[in-house]
Each structure stands twice: as C-alpha cells, then as structure tokens.
Design a protein that fits this description.
The chain has about 190 residues and is α/β, with parallel strands linked by helices. The chain is about 30% helix and about 25% strand. It is built from seven helices and eight strands. β1, α3 and β2 form a beta-alpha-beta unit. It is globular and about 45 Å long.
Amino acid sequence: MKYRESGMPEQAYWETLFDVEGVLDCFSLGPSTGAVAELGCGYGTFTLEVAKRTGALVHAFDIDPAMVEVTRRRASQQGLSTVLVAQRDVFADGFGLPDASCGAALLFNILHGEAPVEMLREAARVVVAGGTVAVIHWRSDIDTPRGPSPEIRPGPEQILAWAQAVPELCVETPPVLLPPWHFGVRLTKRDPRV
C-alpha cells in the first residue's frame, strides 16, 4: 500500500526536525528495553540511535526500498550489526515478528495512515507484557515545517482514543510535548495475568 502523504525531504534537513535524544529519553529506551520494532524507519534517524542505546536487535521496516537501503547502509557504516532492516508493507502483512518478541515498538509519525487502530494492535502483539508502544506525531496546534495535512494529522486525544480500542494497551503517562515539532504518547502492554 502506498502510504498517504509520504515523501521524504533530503536527509540532512529531515534530521534537524527532531530532538532524537529527547524523544528516546521520553520513552526510557535503553539497555533494559530489549529488542525493538520500528515502523517507518525512513533514513534511520531513530533506528541507529535506538540500536546504540539498547545494544539489542532493532527490526526496522519501511515500505520504501530507498529508505530501507539508506538505513541499511548507515547501520553498516556505523558497525551496527544488530539493526535488521526490511522492506515490508506492515499495514498489509504485519511486522512478521513473533508474539511478545520485543520490549518496545516505535510508531513515529505513522498513525495518520488508513488503519491506525490495526497498527496499534499489531504493535501491541509484538511487545512483551509491560513493554512500550511509543508514539510520536507532528503537533497540530502549531505550524510545523513538515507533516501530513491537518485533515489527517492525529492529535494526542485521537491517539488516546485509538489506544482505548486496543484492550491490551494502557496509557503509561499523559501525552507530552517533544520540542520542537512533536508530541509523544507512551503506551504499555498490559500483563494479562494481572
């Protein structure tokens, strides 16, 4: 499926639009996280830093073969052998990972697609009980230099409503601002034994 409102600007500019360290700090991603699944890895902007921080496998997916190649090349150049990059239509085929195989799933700037609840459900499926589903998106309360059109850009309240439709997920903390242009929502997979 072609992802609506896709199309990446050039890499150097794109990477100025995020405080990567601040975003990863917000979600407490580090050595205890375990394996990570990332949907829409783009240039590997977050992929590479997650691999460095966690030391664990990072399963990075993108529908665009050019983005897959860039991320794969950058990981190789940096000696990050734990980064596994694949071209995949996760909307159609899921992550292709076993149930409860990751400590976290990253859904960064991706939930404006046609199936956000299904994407959250699939992220919850691959995350262990107590694991994190980390969501960021472009803010809609300010003008941003990029991002999907306002008609399809979800706000924090919309993401929380979608998360409520996935019984396995609970809201870890209220939405937070992630300057300069994003907000974040941390969701946790419930332990079914509790």
